[in-house]
Design brief:
The complex is a heterodimer. Chain A is built from five helices and one strand. In chain A, helix 3 packs antiparallel against helix 5. The mean pLDDT of chain A is 85. Chain B is mainly alpha-helical. Chain B has one domain. Helix content of chain B is 53%, strand content 5%. Chain B has seven helices and five strands; from the N terminus they run ββααααββαααβ. In chain B, the strands form two sheets. In chain B, strands 1-2 form a two-stranded antiparallel sheet. In chain B, strands 3-4 form a two-stranded antiparallel sheet. The termini of chain B are far apart. The chains are: A mainly alpha, B mainly alpha. At the A-B interface, strand 1, helix 1, helix 2, helix 3 and helix 4 of A face helix 1, helix 2, helix 3, helix 4 and strand 4 of B.
C-alpha cells in the first residue's frame, strides 16, 4: 500500500471512524443539521442555474485551473442530475462537519455556564 | 461503603454511622470512552472570519427566514473558498476536511487515489459554482458592470486558480497527483 500523500499524515493517530462519523447528514435528533443539508443542496442548484445567464467568457475562465488562460469549454450544468446531487452531498458533508464543531462548542459553553451558575447559586446560599 | 459484584464502588467514604472508611481504588476500565468530537475539534483550523460566519449561520438556522439562512450559508462557505493559507495547505480547515472526506468508513482507512479523485473533482465543481455565485450573483445579473467582472477576474486569479495558495489550488494539486498515481501505479494499490 503506497502512502502517497501528506493528507495521510494529517490523520495520523486520529480515530478515523469517529472523524468520518461527523460527516453524516441524516440524524433525526439534529434539526439544524438536517435543515442546513437541505439548504446546501438548494444553494448548489441555485448556483448551477445561475451559470446559464453568465457571459460565455466568464464561464470559460471559471472552468480553467490555469492562471493565464481560460478553458476551451465553459463551465455548465452537469449532464447527469445525479452527478450534481452527489457532488452537492460533498459540500453538505463539509457544512455538517464544521457546524457540528460549532454545535459541540456551544453545548460545552452552555454546560459550563450551567455549572458556573449552579456553583454561584451554592455560594450565594452559603453566604 | 458498598461494593457491587461488578467491582465498582457505590456510596460515599463516610458511612451512615459517621465512621470514615478507606475507599478501594476504582478499577480502570479496559476501554476508554472517547469524546466523539475530540479529533474533529483538534483537527479543524478556523480563521476568525470563518468562525464568526459559521456561528452566525448556526444562529440563523431555524429562524424561518429562508433568504437570511441562504445568505448566511453562502457567506460561510465563501469564507472557506476565498482565502489564502498563511503557511501551508494543511493548516487550512477546508483541506483538513478533505482528508476526512478521504476516509472510507467501511474499511476504516483512506480511499484509493482513483476513488478519491472522483470525489475531489466533485468538490472542485461545487467550489467553482459557489464562488461565482458569491462574486457575481445570478439574482443581480442585469445590474452587474464591467467593474464586477474585473473583480471576478482578480478574485479568480487570487483564490480559484492553480498556484494561488488557496484550498482550490491544493485540490487541483491533489487531482493532478491522483492522475499521476493512476497512470503510474495502476489502480489497485495506491492510496491518498
Amino acid at each position: 500500500m503506497v502512502q502517497a500523500h501528506r493528507l495521510d499524515g494529517l490523520l495520523k493517530d486520529r480515530n478515523l471512524t469517529l472523524l468520518a462519523h461527523q460527516l453524516r447528514t441524516l440524524d433525526p435528533s439534529e434539526d439544524k443539521i438536517k435543515l442546513v443539508a437541505e439548504l446546501t443542496e438548494r444553494l448548489i442548484e441555485r448556483c448551477v442555474k445561475g451559470l446559464a445567464t453568465l457571459p460565455q467568457e466568464i464561464r470559460r475562465w471559471l472552468r480553467s485551473a490555469k492562471r493565464e488562460a481560460p478553458d476551451t469549454r465553459p463551465l455548465g450544468r452537469l449532464q447527469k442530475p445525479e452527478s450534481q446531487a452527489r457532488y452537492a452531498r460533498y459540500i453538505v458533508k463539509f457544512v455538517c462537519f464544521y457546524l457540528r464543531i460549532i454545535a459541540d462548542e456551544e453545548s460545552h459553553s452552555s454546560r459550563d455556564l450551567t455549572r458556573a451558575s449552579i456553583a454561584a447559586g451554592g455560594l450565594s446560599r452559603d453566604f | 461503603m458498598l461494593l457491587t459484584d461488578k467491582g465498582s464502588i457505590e456510596g460515599s467514604d463516610i458511612d451512615s454511622d459517621g465512621s470514615t472508611q478507606l475507599r478501594r481504588p476504582r478499577k480502570q476500565r479496559n476501554t476508554t470512552l472517547q469524546d466523539p468530537m475530540k479529533d474533529a475539534q483538534e483537527l479543524f483550523t478556523w480563521t476568525p472570519e470563518q468562525k464568526t460566519l459559521a456561528i452566525r449561520l448556526w444562529s440563523v438556522l431555524g429562524s424561518g427566514e429562508r433568504m437570511v439562512e441562504m445568505d448566511a450559508l453562502l457567506a460561510s462557505l465563501a469564507s472557506f473558498i476565498f482565502m489564502q493559507y498563511p503557511r501551508e495547505p494543511l493548516s487550512c480547515g477546508f483541506v483538513q476536511f478533505l482528508a476526512v472526506l478521504g476516509i472510507d468508513r467501511e474499511i476504516g482507512r483512506l480511499r484509493t487515489a482513483k476513488n478519491y479523485s472522483f470525489i475531489l473533482a466533485g468538490v472542485v465543481y461545487c467550489v467553482r459554482v459557489l464562488g461565482i455565485e458569491r462574486l457575481l450573483p445570478a439574482g443581480g445579473r442585469d445590474d452587474q458592470t464591467e467593474a464586477d467582472r474585473e473583480h471576478f477576474t482578480e478574485m479568480r486569479e487570487k483564490c480559484l486558480a492553480d498556484g494561488s495558495f488557496s484550498p482550490i489550488s491544493e485540490m487541483i494539486n491533489l487531482l493532478a497527483m491522483g492522475k499521476h498515481i493512476g497512470l503510474n501505479l495502476g489502480n489497485s494499490d495506491n492510496v491518498y
